[in-house]
Amino acid sequence: MASRAGSSSRGRTGKGALAEEASTMKKVKEWSNWTLKKAKVVVHYGFIPMVIIIGMNSDPKPQLYQLLTPV
Amino acid sequence: MAATTVKAEPLGQPPEEKVAERVDYLNLPCPIPYEEIHREALMSLKPDVFEGFRFEFNKGLNPQFGLSHSVYMGLAEIPSQSSETIKIPTAQYEFGANFMDPKLLLLGRVLTDGRLNARAKWDFTDNFSLKANALLTNEPHMSHGMFNFDYKGTDYRAQFQLGNGALFGANYIQSVSPHLSLGGEVFWAGQHRKSGIGYAARYNTNKMVATGQVASTGMVALSYVQKVSEKVSLASDFMYNYMSRDVTASVGYDYILRQARLRGKIDSNGCVSAFLEERLNMGLNFNLSAELDHSKKDYKFGFGLTVGQ
């Protein structure tokens, strides 16, 4: 009985370890999906403004009105 | 005495020339990057043909920073199952910003429907560079992105690619002689469950470039470009897919004149195309494009103007 209980508890911890591993993998996948989705939104809205900011701060520094006028 | 010394010099020269011609295998030139192996053939045979009206205005605020505004009015093709092509009239405006530094290159273009096309290239050291390319849309699951890590050695280049949809790829190209370079690539696409391996070779001299590429996806591509003179070059291309038994051969010309560049090609699919870029004035370019596909009865004509400063 004790041995069966012992083996069943070992069996349960064995399955428990596998379940833990599977759930950490799932968590890692979920987090990486979440970060990729957020990164995609950030890049989609922020890439062009970032290029404009980097360009306006480069030498020789252009004026703000030059950004808007056609000439 | 003077006569003997004069006679000795010409005899001395030919052995020196022969020594200079011997190949120094430890000092070969760096090869072209793997993805640009067909660059000359691609530039001559596949110009950017379009249909409709295209106007582009490039404004440079700085030698490094510029903005571009582009308007396109014309017909866009919708992929359809039947053999007829369906075209619907569209008009779009595209805003772009680009920053070009010797070490950092950033290019972004955004369309009126919210699609963003972004490219970035960063050289962290002389030999190592990182490139990224993304096409982002508002529709879910239609966006693509790819990162490339490049390493440039003395006579070889290696690249590792990482893309969305679990796409992994690597390629390597090595200069084997001053004119010949050989390379190979492998890729693995997790989402489509495909993987492949390919080999490429490129032989170039000052007057000609010949390339060949074979891949396990069934593609065999050969191309040959001959520079007939300073202004004229002729190119031909052959592509064969041994899995789908699809063959395409094309022959084209490329005239690079002082004020104009004219490219034309004819295809084995019955497609004839031509593209003219003419410089009307300083900073004003006029483009004419025509593509006649006789087998599909699809005729496309376009004209455009590019105002660049």
Automatic annotation (TrEMBL), chain A:
Membrane-topology descriptor: Single-pass membrane protein
PANTHER family in alphabetical order: MITOCHONDRIAL IMPORT RECEPTOR SUBUNIT TOM7
Any matching Pfam family: Tom7
Protein name: Mitochondrial import receptor subunit TOM7-1
Gene Ontology CC annotations of this record: mitochondrial outer membrane translocase complex
Family the UniProt entry places it in: Belongs to the Tom7 family.
Keyword Membrane: yes
UniProt keywords, alphabetically: Membrane, Mitochondrion, Mitochondrion outer membrane, Protein transport, Transmembrane, Transmembrane helix, Transport
InterPro entries: Tom7
Example GO BP: protein import into mitochondrial matrix
Location relative to the cell: Mitochondrion outer membrane
Organism this protein belongs to: Trapa natans
Automatic annotation (TrEMBL), chain B:
InterPro entries: Porin_dom_sf, Porin_Euk/Tom40, Tom40
Keywords (A to Z) from UniProt: Acetylation, Ion transport, Membrane, Mitochondrion, Mitochondrion outer membrane, Porin, Protein transport, Transmembrane, Transmembrane beta strand, Transport
Annotated membrane topology: Multi-pass membrane protein
Cellular compartment(s): Mitochondrion outer membrane
Any one Gene Ontology molecular-function term assigned to this protein's record: protein transmembrane transporter activity
A Pfam family annotated for this UniProt entry: Porin_3
Gene Ontology CC, one term: pore complex
Superkingdom, natural source: Eukaryota
GO biological process, one term: monoatomic ion transport
CDD domains: Porin3_Tom40 (cd07305)
Task of the protein: Central component of the receptor complex responsible for the recognition and translocation of cytosolically synthesized mitochondrial preproteins. Together with TOM22 functions as the transit peptide receptor at the surface of the mitochondrion outer membrane and facilitates the movement of preproteins into the translocation pore. Directly involved in the pore formation.
Family, similarity comment: Belongs to the Tom40 family.
Protein's name in the database: Mitochondrial import receptor subunit TOM40-1-like
Species annotation: Trapa natans
